[in-house]
């Protein structure tokens, strides 16, 4: 059995609490003899600033680069809000994305049957919802130059540049088409080609890439329409591929379909499928250190890691099944508890998932 070397960066707020539960899941799998895993941990975010004056040290970056994958909790601590952006805890995640060239962000939008009534959408709208958003992560208006502020004739302007090169679009489109091959074989490319030249290039390149994936249906959709369709008929989607800024907004919108931000995992991959796996939520300072955080998004992030970085879909399936079986017992953390459900804490939720996993292993 190949030893997997994992870098674990728990971070701030609820990060360490939920990461403990993800590590319990890994220990279960190790004890069952289905994986051999070595873990190296380091500080990141606000805790790292307190320890060494920077949100991520060079030695942590070196450790991460030498690992096979990264499990990341969350960063963010309001006590650093007075600092310039470049010195805040959140800079750690941007640095990791840049240094590791993590250009593809993958967010599955999963509906758990037991939690359908937690969503603001009607049950019939949620039926059969199962899609993935693939967001380009290292380009677009967030990184385009020139950017800045200027004064023209006494009037203050802010400006940013939306830009994508053909190779950038091609590589993210391929990620989407490859994912669709193993799913329902449909890609929806979201753009704004009716008004933005950058997005016309986007549409042309995605269409060209689709010629190499003859069995995948390609649909183009303008972003404003996509925002409506996500709410009116989300079950139509299989794989949505989109740029950085549209993906940022649409993926947060889509996460709300499921009912709690504490449920959804994500993967950020580079071309060699090296991945950073993290929940989609932040450090949730309002509930930190209270044993209230939902660890499911973090636990499902480990499932994604086995699927995308280690070609172990069998283990990903096991973890996902253990989570489903746990929810079937109608136990949950505060964010998902309702009616006759039993409210339990972060630790107990992790224990329940491990119990189910032990039975499955
Ligand atoms: P947040 O995602 O941390 O919290 C939003 C709301 O969701 C809060 O009410 C919180 O209690 C709840 N929530 C989040 N995760 C939960 C979980 N696992 N279980 C139960 N409830 C959960 O977003 P925010 O409050 O806007 O930001 C807090 C900090 O996190 C900020 O410093 C922000 O910059 C940072 N942040 C970091 C990341 C990251 O590390 N990738 C992402 C987003 C925000």
Textual characterization of the structure:
The chain has 361 residues and is an alpha/beta fold. The protein folds into 2 domains: 1-110 and 261-361, Isopropylmalate Dehydrogenase; 120-257, 3-Layer(aba) Sandwich (Isopropylmalate Dehydrogenase). The protein has 12 helices and 14 strands. The strands form 3 sheets. The protein has a 10-stranded mixed β-sheet with strand order 2-1-3-12-11-4-5-10-8-9, sandwiched between helices. A two-stranded antiparallel ribbon has the order 6-7. A two-stranded parallel sheet has the order 13-14. The chain is globular. The model has no long low-confidence stretch (mean pLDDT 95). Bound molecules: nicotinamide-adenine-dinucleotide (NAD). Residues 14, 74-76, 90, 93, 261-262, 278, 281-287, 293-294, 297, 335 line the site of nicotinamide-adenine-dinucleotide (NAD).
A few lines on this structure:
This protein is of the alpha/beta class and 361 residues long.
In helices, the fraction of residues equals 25-40%
The secondary-structure class comes to: alpha/beta
User: Multimeric state of these chains?
Assistant: single chain
* Shape label: globular
Strand order of the largest sheet: 2-1-3-12-11-4-5-10-8-9
Instruction: Classify the fold: give the CATH topology of the largest domain.
Output: Isopropylmalate Dehydrogenase
Number of helices: 12
**CATH architecture annotation name of the largest domain:** 3-Layer(aba) Sandwich
Order of helical and strand elements: EHEHHEHEHEEEHEHEHEHEEHHEEH
For the sheet with most strands, the description reads: 10 strands, mixed
| Rg on CA atoms, Å | 21 Å
Integer tally of domains: 2
CATH class of the largest domain: Alpha Beta
Report the β-strand fraction as a percent range. 15-25%
Low-confidence stretches: none
**Intertermini distance:** 16 Å
The CATH superfamily of the largest domain is: Isopropylmalate Dehydrogenase
On the 0 to 100 scale, the average pLDDT is 95
Work out the number of β strands: 14
């Amino acid at each position: 059995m190949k030893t997997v070397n994992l870098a674990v960066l728990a971070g701030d707020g609820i990060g360490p609490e939920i990461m403990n539960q993800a590590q319990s899941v890994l220990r279960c799998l190790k004890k069952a003899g289905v994986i051999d895993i070595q873990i190296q941990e380091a500080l990141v975010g606000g805790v790292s600033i307190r320890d060494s004056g920077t949100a991520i040290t060079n030695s942590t970056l070196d450790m991460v680069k030498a690992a096979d994958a990264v499990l990341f909790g969350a960063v963010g601590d309001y006590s650093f809000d007075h600092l310039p952006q470049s010195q805040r805890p959140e800079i750690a995640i941007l640095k990791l994305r840049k240094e590791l060239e993590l250009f593809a962000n993958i967010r599955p939008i999963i509906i758990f049957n037991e939690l359908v009534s937690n969503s603001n959408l009607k049950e019939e709208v949620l039926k059969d919802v199962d899609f993935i958003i693939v967001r380009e992560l290292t380009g677009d208006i967030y990184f385009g130059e020139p950017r800045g502020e200027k004064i023209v004739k006494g009037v203050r302007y802010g400006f940013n540049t939306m830009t994508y090169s053909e190779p950038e679009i091609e590589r993210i489109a391929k990620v989407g088409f490859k994912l669709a091959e193993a799913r329902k074989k449909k890609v929806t490319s979201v753009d704004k080609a009716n008004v933005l030249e950058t997005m016309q290039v986007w549409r042309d390149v995605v269409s060209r890439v689709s010629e190499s994936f003859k069995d995948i249906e390609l649909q183009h959709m303008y972003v404003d329409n996509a925002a409506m369709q996500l709410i009116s008929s989300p079950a139509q989607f299989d794989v949505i591929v989109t740029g950085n800024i549209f993906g940022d907004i649409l993926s947060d919108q889509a996460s709300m379909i499921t009912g709690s931000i504490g449920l959804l995992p994500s993967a950020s991959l580079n071309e060699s499928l090296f991945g950073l796996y993290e929940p989609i939520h932040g450090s949730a300072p309002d509930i930190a250190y209270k044993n209230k955080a939902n660890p499911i998004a973090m636990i499902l992030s480990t499932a994604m890691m086995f699927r995308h970085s280690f070609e172990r879909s069998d283990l990903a399936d096991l973890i996902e099944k253990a989570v489903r079986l746990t929810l079937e017992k109608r136990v949950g953390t505060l964010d998902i508890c309702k009616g006759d459900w039993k409210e339990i804490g972060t630790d107990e939720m992790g224990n329940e998932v491990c119990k189910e996993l032990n039975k499955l292993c």
